């Protein structure tokens, strides 16, 4: 399986986001994971579409925008206009269905995410309409938390469904991914790994990205 690494800008130095994005591009990242938080869906506030728009000018990395916001349907257009290549909304949001419809209409990749307490069954009705499912392996809101190994069965179930129905589904994992936990996620069936702390705080991000991609501890 082709494994992609998406550094999460939540762990970047926000005083120089553009340089941080370029640092990840030079280190060999496949995507830039952009954490959008509204202080309501999660207890933290990060950035909005204007920041994504400015970042779009400084890197060619595809933007993987993770909307941890309560009303994603209100903001999908703004993030797509700003340069998002793929957008993830949360299954727990009442307007997730509407947001996914808008994303498909705009022609960007769309994904649904489940928080740790949400059963993976929540994405089942949408499977054939999704490009990706994001399995959260921490409670969303903050970087630097520990990987929840009890989320691995969700990844296995998703990979099984994708194989069973012949769906080209990407399975992304986010939270506590490092060189020790990446092999677990990959073995379970994940093919896109989000990593904040492990990559941004590494002395050698290029080597860390290569190591994460290898699936070997
Ligand atoms: O979405 C997130 C938190 O809600 C972050 O992307 C995630 O926690 C990555 O950070 P780390 O690799 O440090 O755990």
Automatic annotation (TrEMBL):
Keywords: Carbohydrate metabolism, Cobalt, Isomerase, Manganese, Metal-binding, Zinc. GO terms for molecular function: D-ribulose-phosphate 3-epimerase activity; metal ion binding. Its cofactor is a divalent metal cation; Zn(2+); Fe(2+); Co(2+). The keyword Lipoprotein does not apply. It is an enzyme of class 5 (isomerase). Pathway: Carbohydrate degradation. One of its GO terms (cellular component) is cytoplasm. Binds 1 divalent metal cation per subunit. The active site is at 35 (proton acceptor), 174 (proton donor). GO terms for biological process: pentose catabolic process; pentose-phosphate shunt. NCBIfam families: PRK05581.1-4, rpe. This is Ribulose-phosphate 3-epimerase. It comes from Solibaculum mannosilyticum. The lineage of its organism: Bacteria, Bacillati, Bacillota, Clostridia, Eubacteriales.
């Amino acid at each position: 399986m082709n494994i992609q690494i998406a550094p999460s800008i939540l762990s970047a130095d926000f005083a120089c986001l553009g340089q941080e994005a370029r640092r990840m591009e030079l280190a060999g990242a496949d995507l830039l994971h952009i954490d959008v938080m509204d202080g309501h869906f999660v207890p933290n506030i990060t950035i909005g579409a204007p920041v994504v728009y400015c970042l779009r000018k400084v890197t060619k990395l595809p933007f993987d925008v993770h909307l941890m916001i309560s009303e994603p349907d209100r903001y999908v257009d703004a993030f797509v206009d700003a340069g998002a290549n793929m957008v993830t909304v949360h299954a727990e949001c009442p307007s997730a269905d509407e947001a996914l419809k808008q994303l498909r209409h705009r022609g960007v990749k769309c994904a649904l995410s489940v928080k740790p307490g949400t059963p993976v069954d929540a994405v089942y009705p949408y499977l054939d309409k999704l490009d990706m499912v994001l399995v959260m392996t921490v409670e969303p809101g903050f970087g630097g938390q520990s990987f929840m190994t009890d989320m691995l069965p969700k990844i296995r179930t998703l990979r099984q469904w994708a194989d069973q129905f012949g769906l080209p589904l990407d399975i992304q994992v986010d939270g506590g991914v490092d060189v020790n936990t990446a092999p677990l996620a990959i073995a379970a069936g994940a093919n896109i790994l989000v990593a904040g702390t492990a990559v941004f705080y590494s002395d050698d991000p290029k080597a860390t990205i290569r190591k994460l991609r290898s699936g070997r501890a």
